[in-house]
Amino acid sequence: MKLLVLHGPNLNLLGRREPHLYGSLTLAELDADLVALGASLGATIETFQSNSEGNLVDRIQQTRDDGTDGLVINAAAYTHTSIAIRDALTFCERPAVEVHLSNVYKREPFRHTSLIADICIGQITGLGPDSYRLGLRALSSHLSRPKK
Predict the structure, then answer these.
(1) Per residue of the chain (148 residues), what is the pLDDT tens digit?
(2) For the whole model, what pTM was predicted?
(3) Is 105 a catalytic residue?
(4) 5-28 pLDDT per residue, tens
(5) 100 is catalytic
(6) Rounded to whole angstroms, how far apart are CA atoms 9 and 7?
(7) How far apart are CA 121 and CA 71, in angstroms?
């Protein structure tokens, strides 16, 4: 099983940006944790971070042809604004789990709307790095179920 973990804008600043919201774990440390968790689940994990909407769209589109089975995505601020990311997720026809480190529903009202939630198999928010870990476990479980 090949899974892609996508990190959107400003997540490269994890560990330094608003630690009261996002914690002290760096992106490199989070990625290493997810790769190790993936191995324990029998999955190969690729991680990708970009501050550019276009780069994220390009990487999502590539999943249709590169053997990726599913995605865990923290589109960050693009969650609330990007129809392009939504369209790319629809195009790739791969199951996706939306994750957020902070509880977006306890933050500013504009963060309460996700443009991708309804096309994802689930959403996990507000649990810090565990949001990613739980998302990866849920995606792996979803993909391991027998096809009907």
Answers:
(1) 999 999 999 999 998 877 777 678 999 999 999 999 999 999 999 999 999 999 999 999 999 999 999 999 999 999 999 999 999 999 999 999 999 998 877 777 777 789 999 999 999 999 999 999 999 999 999 999 887 7
(2) 0.93
(3) no
(4) 999 999 999 988 777 776 789 999
(5) yes
(6) 7
(7) 10
d(CA 100, CA 32): 18
Residue of 7, 78, 100, 132 marked catalytic: 100
The residue ranges of every structural domain in the chain are 2-144
Q: Are 18 and 59 in contact (CB under 8 A)?
A: no
Amino acid letter for position 92: C
Task: Yes or no: say if 121 and 97 are a contact pair by the CB < 8 Å rule.
Answer: yes
State the catalytic residue, choosing from 7, 22, 78, 132: 22
Note whether 82 and 117 are within 8 A (CB): no
Q: Which CATH class is domain 2-144?
A: alpha beta
